[in-house]
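4.2 Preliminary Data

To establish feasibility before requesting continued support, the project team ran the inverse folding procedure on a target of 274 residues. The structure was first converted into the token representation described in Section 3, and no sequence information of any kind was made available to the design step. The complete token record follows.
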């Protein structure tokens, strides 16, 4: 599948993914020591929901369009960021780099990597003057080998590929295993779309069982049918303490807020604490 962000900005998978990312970063903020975020597939940073790409799919209407005015306590940090960028009407959606920027403190850092020249140029212009953020035009998987372990010693590697490659799940598995081997104490958060179970099944077989504790959380707004983008998941290596409980609450609240009676979610510890 092709999951270029401009076409899918603000859909239900983005609401889930970005709300969860905010929960992870909130845990890092509890300590005064600095942290860094490596965003391996940063995209363009922000998206016009009135653009031809977004209007073509209309997916934001069933994602952030439903959540925007609702009270969702577990997604409060995320929704506050989105609302501040849309004071009059919902027309702009912040991608992960803008969301992370909103949560950085003075000494924290963001490394945003994007292979597409137009998107990386847009990121550089967007973050010009913010010394906390560096932008690199480079392959996201290669960036893991280049930047991990992060200099701050605390932080997150956020892997959010467009899934344009036929072997994307395989590439994701290889990158995760290699990255965790280099930085076994780092937090790795990898996103994946769900139309069926073939890709994630292959990733699970490939994932190194010697890796640190790893939690998989999936949120499906629709049942899997092999065609529709039913939902998505996050594979989280070294999840912060009690993140599983926070994600359970998030999924429960999103299933109500997004107005889909068929919504399902699942948390599965691929590797438990030894």
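Position-by-position output of the design step:
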């Amino acid at each position: 599948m092709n999951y270029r962000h401009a076409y899918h900005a603000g859909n239900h998978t983005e609401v889930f993914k970005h709300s969860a990312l905010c929960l992870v970063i909130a845990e890092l903020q509890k300590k005064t020591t600095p942290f860094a975020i490596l965003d391996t597939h940063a995209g363009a940073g922000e998206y016009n929901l009135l653009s031809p790409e977004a209007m073509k799919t209309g997916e934001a209407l069933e994602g952030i369009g439903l959540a925007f005015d609702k009270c969702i306590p577990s997604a409060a940090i995320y929704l506050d960021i989105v609302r501040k960028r849309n004071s009059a009407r919902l027309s702009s959606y912040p991608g992960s780099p803008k969301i992370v920027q909103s949560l950085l403190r003075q000494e924290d850092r963001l490394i945003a990597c994007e292979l597409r020249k137009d998107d990386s140029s847009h990121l550089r212009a967007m973050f010009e003057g913010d010394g906390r953020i560096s932008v690199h035009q480079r392959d996201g998987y290669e960036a893991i080998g280049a930047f991990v372990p992060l200099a701050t010693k605390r932080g997150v590697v956020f892997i959010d590929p467009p899934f344009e490659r036929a072997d994307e799940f395989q590439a994701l598995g290889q990158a995760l295993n290699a990255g965790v081997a280099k930085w076994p104490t780092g937090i790795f958060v990898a996103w994946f779309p769900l139309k069926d179970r073939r890709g994630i099944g292959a990733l699970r077989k490939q994932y190194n069982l010697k890796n640190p504790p790893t939690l998989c959380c999936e949120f499906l707004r629709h049942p899997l049918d092999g065609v529709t983008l039913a939902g998505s998941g996050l594979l989280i290596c070294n999840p912060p303490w009690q993140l599983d409980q926070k994600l359970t609450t998030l999924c429960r609240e999103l299933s109500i807020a997004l107005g889909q009676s068929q919504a399902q979610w699942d948390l599965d510890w691929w590797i438990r604490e030894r």
